Amino acid sequence: MAASTVAGLLAERRSPAFAHRLATFSLLAIFWVVLPFLIVCTLPSLRLDTALVRSLGLGWLALAIAGVAAWFVGSRVLRLPRPSTGALICSTVIANTGYFGLPFTSTLLGRDDLATAIAYDTLISGPMFYVVGMAIGGRFGAGDRGLGLSPRALLLRNPPLLAAIAGLLLPSTAVPDALVDTAHDSIWVLLVLGFVAVGATLATEADEGAFVFPPRLDPPVRVALLLRLVLAPAIFLGLTALAGGAPAAFRVEAAMPAAIGCLIIAHTTKLDLRLSAATIVWSTAIVAVWGIVATLL
Fold first, then answer.
1. I need a labelling partner for 104 at 20 to 30 A (CA). Which of 5, 121, 154, 289 fits?
2. CATH number at 2-296
């Protein structure tokens, strides 16, 4: 993760145009190739029972509550400008459960939990980014007002979602074990491509004056970290405890750092880039250290 991020940073320093192409290629490869392949090969083994469906619903409810809390704290307590409030909400509800969360969960819990983690990423985090996050940006930002896509276009231009539908419909015997093993190994490709894009993107933000390293831990950033890493997972754990528990992979995914998607939304809709970038960096570093300690223990 660290090496891939540094590679993206150095690429931007040597050639901004090349770094932009590299980041674009990495994100497109993740979105159109790696994630759909991983999803369609892994989800057929997922047992979609009542408990899992309930946990998915509670995951959405937990993020909705956390998002409202972020809006209240940002607008009423901190009295942030609207673009900063929107960035705070996005950083709270959009977690990096894909190219960070999937390798993280696989390493921490084992590959048997990967299908469940993919269900969380695909059915909660995906729509949270592509639909809810862009709607928040359109409401609080100064740029584009949402995606501008019809529901049909959102479906056809969302290969991970199409892969999830296919994966849930396929029987568990449809995918050979060798292909499943290959898909599981692809999570490391996901990690490398994702953090190369993070490094290149953050270096670009630094050139534009929206990001410094290490980012300042000012009050809005500290609040964003508390909302994303403490409040949002605590709400999910509380709701699921009342309902009888949740899969271990869901509990891990609920505590993932802010996603690079927050930066994409901030770019598109003119939210607070500095707050978005700083939250991504600090939350990722905190969760990475926590993961190392948890793995060693």
1. 154
2. 1.20.1530.20
3-state SS track over the chain: CHHHHHHHHHHHHHCHHHHHHHHHHHHHHHHHHHHHHHHHHHHHHCCCCHHHHHHHHHHHHHHHHHHHHHHHHHHHHCCCCHHHHHHHHHHHHCECCCCCHHHHHHHHHCHHHHHHHHHHHHHHHHHHHHHHHHHHHHHHCCCCCCCCCCHHHHHHCCHHHHHHHHHHHCCHHHCCHHHHHHHHHCHHHHHHHHHHHHHHHHHHHHHCCCCCCCCCCCHHHHHHHHHHHHHHHHHHHHHHHHHCCCCHHHHHHCCCCECCHHHHHHHHHCCCHHHHHHHHHHHHHHHHHHHHHHHHC
Least Cα distance to 231 among 138, 93, 115 occurs for 93
Domain boundaries, the chain: 2-296
Neighbours of 161 (CB within 10 A): 19
* Amino acid symbol at 291: G
